Amino acid sequence: MSDITITHTAADGTLVEGTSKGDGTNTILKAHGFRWFRTLGVWGIAGSRDRQPNEPKIERARSALTEAGHTVTVDIDRTHRDTATVEADKADRQQARADALENKADRHRARADAAWDAEQRAAAALPPGGEPIHVGHHSEGRHRRAIDNAHRKFRHAMDADTQATTTAQRADTAARGTERRYNPRTVANRIEKLEAEQRADQRALDGHTRTLFITSDGQRAVDITPAATGERREQITAAMAQRGDELTHWHAVRAEQIATGQTGDYRRETISAGDQVRDSFGHWLPVLRANPKTVTVERPAPFGGRMIRGTIPYQDLTGHQSAATIDDAAG
Question: pLDDT tens, 229-246?
Fold first, then answer.
């Protein structure tokens, strides 16, 4: 049996060391959500780098490995890295991936070009003018082989061309990965998600009560969640500390995007009834009410007729005109 160590650090994520081929650990780890990292030569949890450890998954794997007779040590470090460092690291890895895919696409394109040249030579070897096969003639076998060869070369060239095109598309997608990550709309959505998670964790730290239902005589049936304690409290505190650092970073990114005009400062405090906002389709719509997270607008019904009301999240807006600006333009 093996002496196995499951480690977690922010820089490396969750990795498993000490396994060997044939010791049965591969079946156990795969069944519990671990994946083999070919480039590292170890098992680990995908996407665990710069995230808080998935301790339930780690514990289930540890228990299963122990039951199988292995000696397992778990070493978890909940310390997080500075978000700016994490983002720079992600950008470097994204660029390296894009470069690798671009080089791979070039190799596939070269093979595709060679395959098309071979296809042209095979086609040129066929009898001219689409001459039919002379059944029973001494040329029949050669003629059939030439046709089969031309068909094989054509299919090979088509497959190589498809592979080259697909790899080039993957390289282009990878090259634009960081750009998409810092898209103003994506940044705004990320901030909203992180803040919601932060509020949920704060409720878990403090404990909370929610009403399940109210009886006919006015009595409330409540569900009481006590404040987190012990190791669970430590886990939540570590997660909130990391998320707080991420929020500081992304709020700074958002502020710079607003200052440089990449996006507008769309929120309840800057938009009022009577203003107009532009949706993601480029339509200017009158504002009826500014809500905490959305703006209520009025738009034409899809097939004409009366106007209908709807809401648009602030992060989905692409333009804003105040009522005063509209009046000035009209005057």
Answer: 999 999 999 999 999 999
Encoded amino acid at 118, one letter: A
* Neighbour order of strands in the sheet with 3-9: 35-37, 42-44, 13-17, 3-9, 71-76
Quote the radius of gyration of the chain (alpha carbons, Å): 31
User: What are the tens digits of pLDDT across the range 274-324?
Assistant: 999 999 999 999 999 999 999 999 988 877 778 899 999 999 999 999 988
Q: Which amino acid would we find at residue 80?
A: H
How far is residue 298 from each of residues 306, 310, 311, 317, measured CA to CA in Å?
10, 6, 9, 14
Q: Are 299 and 311 in contact (CB under 8 A)?
A: no
Pairing of strands 294-300, 284-290: antiparallel
pLDDT for the residue numbered 331 = 61
Q: Which of 47, 45, 53, 58 is nearest to 242 (CA)?
A: 53
Longest Cα–Cα distance of the chain, Å, equals: 102
